[in-house]
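WARN retry 2 of 3 for item q-0093 after timeout on previous attempt; input resubmitted unchanged.
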Amino acid sequence: MHVGGLWWFNFRESTYRQCMQYRLEALPTVKASLIASDSRCIEWTYGKIWLVKRVLAEFLAGRVAAGWMDGEEAIGVARDWLYESAARRYRVG
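OK item q-0093 returned
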């Protein structure tokens, strides 16, 4: 599953938050990369990644504040979604 399937016209904070919530509830975090893109423009890719990381930070901070996870778990989720799942898939050491 990849948020990258959300095309530019569906690139809204609310959509990403909803996808994050569904993924968190349904999948092991190491099995779900958060960002994938077919972009050919570094400016678009950089901007998208920056925005998604910000939304992710706010989303996880909300889960911690609500008592659904602690800070260590939130960091683990971010690590898995932003790095580990793709590193395992592509066998990056």
